[in-house]
Amino acid sequence: MGKQPVKMRAVVYALSPFQQKIMSGLWKDLPGKISHKVSENWISATLLLTPLVGTYTYVQNFKEKEKMEHRY
Prior knowledge:
- This protein has helices spanning 24-27, 30-40, 42-69.
- By secondary structure, it is an all-alpha fold.
- It starts with 23 loop residues before the first helix and ends with a helix.
């Protein structure tokens, strides 16, 4: 019993130039999707952003006071 060669067929995958609307669904109605997510999760977004904005504002105010204090 010897080995017999088997013919292999190469499979080539390609995108058709007529069916390349793969990514269009992501950008379709993007402002509507964003506003829907924000309206669903506004409490979580507020609880996340309030400390960040407050800390940033405090640091900027503190740095400005330090600059003004050392100015004279």
